[in-house]
Amino acid sequence: MKLSSVQLDQYHREGYLFFEGLFDRNEVSTLTDRVKAILALDRPEIVREKGSGVARTAFAPQYYDDAFARLARHPRLVEPAVQILGGRVYMHQFKINAKAAFDGEVWQWHQDFGTWVNDDLMPEAKALNVALFLDDVTEFNGALMFIPRSQRRGMLEAGHDLETTSYPLWTIDHATIRRLVDEGGLIAPKGPAGSMLLFHCNLVHASPANISPWDRNIVYLSLNRCDNAIRQFKRPEYIAHRDFTPIEPLPDDCLRSLAAGSAVR
Amino acid sequence: MKLSSVQLDQYHREGYLFFEGLFDRNEVSTLTDRVKAILALDRPEIVREKGSGVARTAFAPQYYDDAFARLARHPRLVEPAVQILGGRVYMHQFKINAKAAFDGEVWQWHQDFGTWVNDDLMPEAKALNVALFLDDVTEFNGALMFIPRSQRRGMLEAGHDLETTSYPLWTIDHATIRRLVDEGGLIAPKGPAGSMLLFHCNLVHASPANISPWDRNIVYLSLNRCDNAIRQFKRPEYIAHRDFTPIEPLPDDCLRSLAAGSAVR
After folding, report:
1. CA R_g for chain A
2. Is residue B109 exposed (0-12), middle (13-18) or buried (19+ Cβ within 10 Å)?
3. Is A169 on the interface with B (CB under 8 A)?
4. Contact, A52 vs A98, CB < 8 A?
5. Using CA atoms, how far apart are residues A265 and A33, in angstroms rounded to an integer?
6. B102 and A145 in contact (C-beta within 8 Å)?
7. What is the pTM of this model?
8. What is the pLDDT of residues A30-78, one digit of tens each?
9. H or E element at residue A39
10. What is the residue-wise DSSP string for A220-249?
11. Gap between the Cα atoms of A264 and A245, Å rounded
12. Is A102 close to B213, i.e. CB distance below 8 A?
């Protein structure tokens, strides 16, 4: 998995790259087979929606599930990040965001880097997110919205929203969003389960509630350059990891070989 | 404005008809020029969002604005309803639904007829809605979602939701929605300001919150056949009208002539 110079240019200009259907059906089902059981776990890593109690986020599934442990080292997810960031990376955060059918709630407009600086003292914006769709993402089930090129403004002023949902977030005011959208527009990448999205940690994004009858699970890897490790350990370890060891990618067939019943770690 | 037999068949089968860009830019701006002032009025007809206090619905603007008074008798909106319902119609309800940028909230899954039966004792489902987009409706700003063919099931069981938003609504349970969507799928008509949507009063629909920076104002005419008038007057007159006089459509240029500065009523 090697990005072309055209892809690298697009990433640096627009702030994201989208790969439709990068993982095949079998690879995806190896993961989705585990998701229901993970979201049903009663442990602090599973954050629930304020209203319904339905699972919203499962943090750090690589600690307690072998398929997600492999995914956290998958070369198709990790190698493009190394290439873009220009150095070895470690896992800052790894989670399943479950925007459940009917009950999945909104994420207000934000930059991820805002939280990483404010809460974790990450030095620079040398980090990015890799999103892997575990369900088809459509216009109906709460697709993420991005403001292209908004990452070029650097870190924007934000307020700490403790009200809207069950997860505290540094969010950006309406006037700033209007201005950024006037300049860059909005995009909402949609595609089948197995699609991958890479985006800059300063790319402004949000996602609406999911009122459709279709779940919308997405896995997020937040990868940070090893020489840019966080300096404050205020949040739980399962939210902001403290192991800064470079990720060693596994072979490209690491999910397929698990599905085939080979030995797990 | 005369529907073809193909259009009539589609309406009766799918439960809706969509006309992209039916009203031109000047006709639309004659209306949108008034909307901001209407939504700012401090009168009981203007219902506000629970959280933000931003206007959610302006009921009965035809009573206090001359452009909307003309729109309420516009032949492009009224004549197709007469043709579909097979008889003269009166205005049961007329409103602007303002799904405001950032603050416009969700409408849960429902059939309009449920409310009209339960609250107003409307005898039969011989009524329909006509929606006129006052803003461009896109994938980003809270497009309505419909379950095609769901009107063929007749009136479905519903519960009275007094919690979710500022407006009480008879809503349909998740299991029923899943079943209907399995059969009919989902559609979300999108198009420029001036587009018109007709839909059956038993067609199940919902709309998500609007977290985009773009407003999404839509005018709704709920037209009922004159021999099907409501029998209970529990709700305020500005919500469920009590004048069952057949609508006399105005000439097709009624909005254009107002824009040109001719005498108002």
Report:
1. 17
2. buried
3. no
4. no
5. 18
6. no
7. 0.91
8. 999 999 999 999 999 999 877 778 898 999 999 999 999 999 999 999 9
9. helix A25-39
10. EEEEEEGGG------S-TTTS----PPP--
11. 21
12. no
